[in-house]
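User: Can you predict the 3D structure of ArsR family transcriptional regulator? Sequence below.
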Amino acid sequence: MKQDIFQAIADPTRRAILTLIAIQALTPNAMAEKFDMTRQAVSKHIKVLHDCELITPKHSGREIYYHFNAKKMQEFDHWLAQFRQNWETQFNQLDQLLTTIKDQTTK
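Assistant: Sure. Here are the predicted structure tokens for ArsR family transcriptional regulator:
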């Protein structure tokens, strides 16, 4: 079952896992060592991230290494970009208004 990317990144542990494997591919055991939780609990988070294609597994011998899927995160970033431009415009307008008010009060 495919998971919703927003559901996946809503959890702080899953965001931390993404941050870890964005730097370096890790096995589930290596990830579990970074958190105060069991390997089984980490595996549940891995499943959610894998189901929404934010991470991809690669087998190396008996180990499975999970890699960060930058392309999927880029799709998410493109979706956010439309909102980013809107709030940047609003922040610029607010900045100009504050500058105008500051200039008027110093005169």
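The domain at 1-68 is CATH 1.10.10.10 (Arc Repressor Mutant, subunit A). The chain has five helices and two strands.
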